[in-house]
Amino acid sequence: MSNLHINKELKSVKIGKHLIEIPIIQGGMGVGISWDKLAGTVSKEGGLGVISGVGTGYYKNKNFSHRNIAGRPYEVENFYSRDALFEIFSNARKICGDKPLGCNILYAINDYGRVVRDACEAGANIIITGAGIPSNMPEFTRDFPDVALVPIVSSVRALKIIIKKWARYNKLPDAVILEGPLSGGHQGFTYEQCFQDEFQLENLVAPVVEEANKFNIPVFSAGGIWDKNDIDRMIELGSAGVQMGTRFIATHECDADLKFKELLLKTTKNDIILMKSPVGYPARGIKTSLHFKMETKTAPKVACISNCVSPCHRGEEAKAVGFCIADRLSDAYFGDTENGLFFSGSNGYRANEIISVKELINKLKNGE
Fold first, then answer.
1. Is the pLDDT score of 314 beyond 60?
2. Which end of the chain offers a freer environment for a tag, N or C, measured as fewer CB atoms within 10 Å?
């Protein structure tokens, strides 16, 4: 990102019927990294807090998962626990009141439509979906006309496809998140594309903004956004705002275990790598003991208990890459540095302290 500090005032943005006072969307991070405490506090401070819909069966030590095997939520209905999602939203609302709250629900999950409806009923104002092209997303929100829909795309082609597919629902995206290849977690690019200039975020913004402007759709840019300089640069290129995930991990309110936050603070630039994933996309995270165990064939055995994502084909892809993503992400949530999979964006190594969300938002607003 540019080092030129433009220092523009951040302006509010409407997403559907919902006003976001500060145009910063907190990325949805699962399992359990952005639940009630983080999302509720971000919304309270004027950004858009986003609850991750992934792995809610782990919430409050699996108290809302009605069946567990080997200590893990069994099958889709427990891994994506409706009861836990309602509780998470209820507790987030106690923090942010009636300010807008989002929910991130991956298109690749099993039972996608059910989880979207659950989130709407639980009180989500905005549904955000990536990990695939959500061509039928509006189908599941017909009974919730005030809920704004925000797909995540990695190209202008993907946006055009969504606009065309959604025409049969007489619906346009209320906003779009353009995610470049420097983000944490799963990428919308091949491994090779993640390193090629033409696929870098700054080169993707203009065509996506041009297409979105035809329909008055605000664009939020994501992937490698770290500070006010980056935010100003994206706005200068035509974005209405940004989405940021990794930097919110190093906050007191982040729902992850303290060991996850401390691991991020110790991370060096070379520790953050692209890896294979059972989801079928390359993913960016921190190289830890898990990777050493996979190399030495001592990693935990793959046993598909939660049946989390359809591209994994009931654990077949997990066996091929060497780890179960549901199990390893939940281990990271609990701070298991031996077996956890810790996602991070490319700039995660720049985290050097744990601060409050309020302090972070002020830094992002004022460029401190």
1. yes
2. C
